[in-house]
Each structure stands twice: as C-alpha cells, then as structure tokens.
C-alpha cells in the first residue's frame, strides 16, 4: 500500500512513493519489479529522496536489488532528508527490484525515480526543468510516465515553454515524446517572453504563465502542417460521416449539420451525428493518389453557445482502401489508444500520433461526449509521396529485312525491363515533403535567406559611412573660426575651396592689414606696389589688436591671458605703436556702403615723405590698376557709424597725432559713389 505514481514501460518508466510530494504515510511498503529485454541492463536515476533517517535506515528506507525473487542481491540501501544522488545505479542483468519501506515518522516526502535501458547516459527525471541546465542547446532522454499531477508547465508550441516547466512533461504536451514510451528530446534555450499561453494537448494541461528570463522549445522534424480541412484543400465530397443531424428551427427551416461543416475555425454549425452512440464516425479522405503522414489532430466542440455539444474521448482508425480499418495503438501496448477530447465547446485540443500514421483515409470514432456528438477537426502532417518508375522508351520500328530479329530483340528488352522493375519495385526511397510549403516557395525562401542578410549588411554599411561623414563634417565645422569668411555664398566655389589649400607663394597670400614705416623703407620700389596690388578681401577684415597676421590665419578669438607667446604673436614689422583695440571683428552696418570701411594709411609723419602728401585707401581701384603708393598707416582706424550722420561718408581718423587741418587728408572715392564737395570748414 505504499506505491504511488507508477508507469513501467518496455524501455523506460517512472515510479514514486505514495502521496509524493506530500509526506508519505506511516507503516507502508511497496515493491516494484522491473524487466527489460534480455541482453540489456537497467539504469536508475533518483530525482528526489526524502526519507526519515532517525533510526539509521532501519524502519524507513529505499533499497535496490539486482534480479527478482529470492535470489536477488542488494545494490544499495538509501535514506535521509534531501539525500542527493547525482549518478546512475546500473544493474548486472535485465531485472531489478526496488523496495520502499516507511516506518513511524513525522516528515519525509518519500522518493521519485526514473529508469531506462543502458546506453542512455543522458537520462533525466520528470522533475528536471530547463533552469537545471546551462547549455543553450542539449539532448536528454525522458522516461515514460512524466505526465504527473504535481508538475506544472506554462506555454505551448511554437512560442515555447517557461523555463520553470518540467522538460519531459512539456515534451509530451508538444507531441515530441509519448507519455507511455518516453523518448529523446532536443531542447533549445532562448530569451523569455512576457506571457505564456495555456492549452490542452496530449492529455496535458498547460497553464498561463507570467514573464520569465528564458524559455525553451524543441527541435522537431517540422511535419506539423495542416492538411486541408480548414483551408478547403480537402473537398466536401471527401468528408463523410455515419449519420447527419437534421432539425427544424423555430421558423420551420430545417438545419442540416453536414460532415463538411466539420472544418476547424469555420464560422457556423459543426458536424453532428443523428444518433449519439459509439458506432458513429467522421471520415476524411486525404487524397486519391498520395498517402499522408498523420502527425496529429485538433478538435473543438460545436462552437455555438446555444448548443453546448462536444466530444470528450475518441479513437482513431486508418485505412488505405476505406474497407479494411486499423485502430491506432501505441507500440508495445496491447489496447487501443484513447485520445482525450474537449472539455468545453470552444477550446482547441491537440493530440499527436507517436509514431505517425501513414494512410489515406482517417476516421474519428467518438466514445464519450457531452449531450450530443458534435465536433470540428483538422489533421496535422505532411505529404508522403512514393517514387515512380521511369518511363520506358522503345526503340523505333526497323524498316529492313531483319525485322524478325529486331522484334526478338525488342521482346527480350521488354522482358528485361519488366524483370528489373519487379525486382526493384521496393527500391525507391520514399520522399517526405511538407504539405504546407511548395517546392517553388522553398526555393524562394532559401534565396531570400541568402539575399536578405547581404542587403541588410550593405545598407547598414552605407548608413554608417554617411553618419561618419556627417559627424566629421560637423566636427571640422566646429573647429573653424566663428567669424570666418563666407566663401560659399558670395565668393564662388573656387574661392571657397581656396581656404582648404596651403598657401605656398606670395602671389596667393592675402594682403596684410598694415606695415610699419620702417619695414616699408627697406622694400624696393618694385616690391611695394606688388605687395599692395594683391586682391583685397571682398568682406570686412576683423579689427584686431596688436600685430595682424596674414588672412589665412583667420582666428579672431582673443588669446587667453598668461598664455605663452607663439610665433603668431611676434611682431614681424616692429611696429612702434602697440595700442589695444577690440579683439573681435565688428559686423558691417545695415545701412552702410557695399564695401568695407577703407583703411587709411597716413604717411604725413614719415620723415621720407613730403609734407602734405595725401593718405591712400587700400580699396581696390577700378580695373586692374593698383592705387599709387604714398604711405602706410601705423595703426588701424575705427570706422564711423553710418547711421549717426548722413554726411559721414568717409571715416575720420580718431586721435591721429601730427595731423593738421582737414585739408591734409585725401580720400579715394569708393566705386559707384559720387565725390561730394568737401568744404574747408568741415
């Protein structure tokens, strides 16, 4: 009376003490005798041992023996709370006896163990889940009997199962292994999802589950496509039944629930039998030329709330000619397989055929139902086509005198071909194809699988190049001077590109703003006009303090205090006056002239210049003629605000030492502006 959950299969099984995983009752005993095929041995793996060891395994224990009967020999005796045994116990023969004894105790769950034939070193128990393994993909062997009431699973195929679910129980739910046979599973671990659906499949109920860090799925053959009930590939004439339910409604119209109504997910009434008994059936002819590998079936009830009808249990029969029928049984089982049906009228319930059925005709034979036999179905599987013999091409009929000899040759040829065809009739290898994917689609999918990653890589590379170029351009733009000249808008493309090229010759250098008088005196007469004839800037030059460098050094930012002087800070012209002016360029007035305020060069104080010599503007004159050189200024002059006075057409020097009256100042008239009459009183 101490035996709990027990499934003893021909090659594997599961056994547990009574009331597991709750506390086992006192004074109970159970003994299991396990036999496998002759020549094989048995290996046992314990998933949990929790037995009271207060009396040193005297009254409560778990004992394993080699053999059965009085001649058996003990392999080991085990007890203890939370006893861990990671390895496998292997017998010396094909027979093993497991004995559980429970004495007087107050706690202890008992035990749960699994067994299989030797050679399956990857045997696991029904208690193992995906979180017990760290590999992203692994193979394990599940024993029979893992549909246990105390284990839970969450999820379904193809979305996956929560990592806390029992691996073997999920494998039964997915249709990968059979609960009565066990089998190999190939598990793949991936990232979890926020929600796991629940469903009923293969007599296993999957519950709704919350978010988890990981999930697992199973690698399968992929032969789980629908065979045409829902899509309409199977015509109505290929769906028949033992009887049809007909009944008039309130308006007197006769409703007929025909067998063609038994298409899954079709809106409307289902198929229903006229008489509800165990002799009713729904038959589906899959194809007249091809057999189909049946991997499973999905059923629902009536799907009509006012008609609460459904089938709760049924059998599957199959045939190749619709005359001789075979009831589906699992290998090694001596009784028909009873499939669990629906528990209500809406839910879809899936059952898998392990091993699959290869047949043309399928029959569903209801055994249990609620109120009336009514259902909708869909078959799962893939096409199973058999190779055909090659066509025979006869040689042309001879038109000569040796016709009889050739006729004999043709007869011998046909006889040899027929003999070879009869001999090799079973030599053609069956070819399994998926009914849901055509060959052309398969080729397109393979081509797309190659092209899509290549295109993605190309577009990603182009995007990265564009982003890097954009960042480089912005970075270069930030390093440029804030007050740099706007060449791109007004100076033309070539003038804009000139700022990126190094200046090597004096002909392409920009004109310095001013020179010291002592430096000009050392220049030759021909060199001075050359220096002044260089093309002036089209925009205003920045007003800077101290010595002004060449225009290609365009930083007008104020140097930091205390900064060590560089080569640009040295005074190449040895200017005697070092007055400090504003360190930044001033914008041109809105109402001012089109050209920048002329820079005046006063040579009146120069000892080598005649007294009263006119001052010269550095503005470019009309044509290519250079302005006459009379003198150079010693410092920059601030221009007057054109908005302050309408008569201030030219800048008036501020605080120039050594100047006499206004008659000593001569200005060059800017282009396109008339020369005003200047009075001597001005």
UniProtKB/TrEMBL annotation:
It is found in: Membrane. One of its GO terms (biological process) is wound healing. It comes from the Eukaryota. Residues 3-118 form the CUB domain. GO terms for cellular component: plasma membrane. Disulfide bonds join 3-30. PROSITE patterns: CUB, FA58C_3, LCCL. Residues 223-382 form the F5/8 type C domain. It is a single-pass type I membrane protein. Gene3D superfamilies: Galactose-binding domain-like, LCCL-like domain, Spermadhesin, CUB domain. Keywords: Disulfide bond, Glycoprotein, Membrane, Phosphoprotein, Signal, Transmembrane, Transmembrane helix. InterPro entries: CUB_dom (IPR000859), FA58C (IPR000421), Galactose-bd-like_sf (IPR008979), LCCL (IPR004043), LCCL_sf (IPR036609), Neuropilin_MCO_CoagFactor (IPR050633), Sperma_CUB_dom_sf (IPR035914). The chain crosses the membrane at residues 445-470. Residues 120-216 form the LCCL domain. CDD domains: CUB, FA58C. It holds the Pfam family F5_F8_type_C. PANTHER family: DISCOIDIN, CUB AND LCCL DOMAIN-CONTAINING PROTEIN 2, F5/8 TYPE C DOMAIN-CONTAINING PROTEIN. This is Discoidin, CUB and LCCL domain-containing protein 2. The lineage of its organism: Eukaryota, Metazoa, Chordata, Craniata, Vertebrata. The gene is Dcbld2.
